[in-house]
Specification:
The complex is a heterodimer of chains A (113) and B (111). Chain A starts with a strand and ends with a strand. In chain A, strand 9 (88-95) and strand 10 form a beta hairpin. In chain A, the strands form 2 sheets. In chain A, strands 2, 4, 5, 6, 9, 10 and 11 form a 7-stranded mixed β-sheet that branches. Chain A has 113 residues and is mostly beta strands. Chain A has strands at 5-7, 10-13, 19-24, 31-38, 42-50, 53-56, 65-71, 74-79, 88-95, 103-104, 108-112. Chain B has no helices and 11 strands. In chain B, strands 2, 4, 5, 9, 10 and 11 form a 6-stranded mixed β-sheet that branches. In chain B, a hairpin with a 4-residue loop joins strand 7 and strand 8. The N and C termini of chain B lie far apart (36 Å). Classes of the chains: A mainly beta (113), B mainly beta (111). Chains A and B meet through strand 5, strand 9 and strand 10 of A and strand 4, strand 5, strand 9 and strand 10 of B.
């Protein structure tokens, strides 16, 4: 298996634009997690899915953020409209079960100008 | 006060030294993760444990649930161990478990 795949690896956009980050989890993993990492706040869990259903989105910072998982092999994290304070590295991770080891994707470095 | 605190924040060692990184938490937990983040930014899960001790190669992780404390040990450290080590706990909440991260320990191993 290729591991967790994220795209794009780098994204530079201007304030106000819509940004869509993509993630393909490891096949057979029932859990998918979206994280954000910044220098100020470290790693934060934004949302996680179980069998494509959002379970806990309490970490999503505000309504500008939304996440979907239309099928077991694809998830998106969307920011609309983007703001400079959204600049961060966004990681996607997947696991077989919630209490199992998580496998992280390489991350998407987002810069909002 | 953070729910998860790591010490030290920064650690510099000479190759071959035995290294200990500590993680203390203030909430009830279901499990604890140790993660390694490489200088390039990639994150790897090292251990997930809820009791006792786990060992993988030169890495050992221990947890004491009663004392709310975990340690990550690296034996015979090597420059390639230089990375940020992050402790994360699955905090028990009334609505389930929530993953909460420590701020990380920056480890530098000099040759």
């Amino acid at each position: 298996d290729a591991g967790v795949i994220q795209s794009p690896r780098h994204e530079v956009t201007e304030m106000g634009q819509e940004v869509t980050l993509r993630c393909k989890p490891i096949s057979g993993h029932d859990y998918l997690f979206w994280y954000r990492q910044t220098m100020m706040r470290g790693l934060e869990l934004l949302i996680y899915f179980n069998n494509n259903v959002p379970i806990d989105d309490s970490g999503m910072p505000e309504d500008r953020f939304s996440a979907k998982m239309p099928n077991a092999s694809f998830s998106t994290l969307k920011i609309q409209p983007s703001e400079p304070r959204d600049s961060a590295v966004y990681f996607c991770a997947s696991s077989i079960y919630y209490y199992n080891e998580q496998f992280f994707g390489p991350g998407t470095r987002l810069t909002v100008l | 006060k953070n729910e998860v605190e790591q010490s030290p924040q920064n650690l510099t060692a000479q190759e071959g030294e035995f290294i200990t990184i500590n993680c203390s938490y203030s909430v009830g937990i279901s499990a604890l993760h140790w993660l390694q983040q490489h200088p390039g930014g990639g994150i790897v899960s090292l251990f997930m444990l809820s009791s006792g001790k786990k060992k993988h190669g030169r890495l050992i992780a221990t947890i004491n649930i009663q004392e709310k404390h975990s340690s990550l040990h690296i034996t015979a450290s090597h420059p390639r161990d230089s990375a940020v080590y992050i402790c994360a706990v699955l905090a028990q909440e009334t609505s389930g478990s929530r993953l909460t991260f420590g701020e990380g320990t920056q480890l530098t191993v000099n040759p």
